[in-house]
Amino acid sequence: MKIPESLRVGAQVYTVGFDKNIRDSGLAGECNFRALTIKVLDDRPPTRIQETFCHELVEAVNYEYGINLRHKQVTQLGMALYQILRDNPGVFLEDGTETACS
Ligand SMILES: [Zn+2]
């Protein structure tokens, strides 16, 4: 999974990056709704970094869409999203063909 440099969530564009300073807060990732940033600690295995990114993405979705999930639910959805994206590589890439969703 490629971690993007920015990501549109709802009407906002979040800047995504790596930041060693968040280690001091004891966090592996951080989603700042005011600054529109997602930061991930980068000194961990790639799978942990990717899982953390998915968690912070769900945090942004939860906030931008006013879903009001509890943090445990955010964690579970983040892990599920990561597993689906990881285990289905390329499924969501555009290949120029139109497909219908039902
Ligand atoms: Zn969280």
Model description:
This protein is an alpha+beta fold. A hairpin with a 4-residue loop joins strand 3 and strand 4. The longest helix has 19 residues. The relative contact order is 0.16. The site of zinc ion has 4 residues, from helix 1 and helix 2.
Average pLDDT rating: 91
Low-confidence stretches: none
The kinds of small molecule bound in this structure are: zinc ion
| Global geometry | globular
Order of strands across the main sheet: 1-2-4-3
* Relative helix content: 25-40%
SS summary, helix count: 2
By helix and strand content, what is the structural category? alpha+beta
Tell me the series of helices and strands, N- to C-terminal: EEEEHH
What proportion strand?
Answer: 15-25%
Number of domains: 1
N-C termini distance: 26 Å
- Secondary structure tally: strands: 4
> Rg, please?
14 Å
Main beta sheet? 4 strands, mixed
Key structural traits:
4-stranded mixed β-sheet; alpha+beta; 2 helices; 35% helix; 102 residues; binds zinc ion
Write a concise synopsis of the structure shown.
This protein is an alpha+beta fold. It has two helices and four strands.
List the helices and strands and how they pair.
Layout: E1 6-9, E2 12-18, E3 29-32, E4 37-40, H1 46-64, H2 71-87
Parallel strand pairs: 2-4
Antiparallel strand pairs: 1-2, 3-4
Bound molecules: zinc ion.
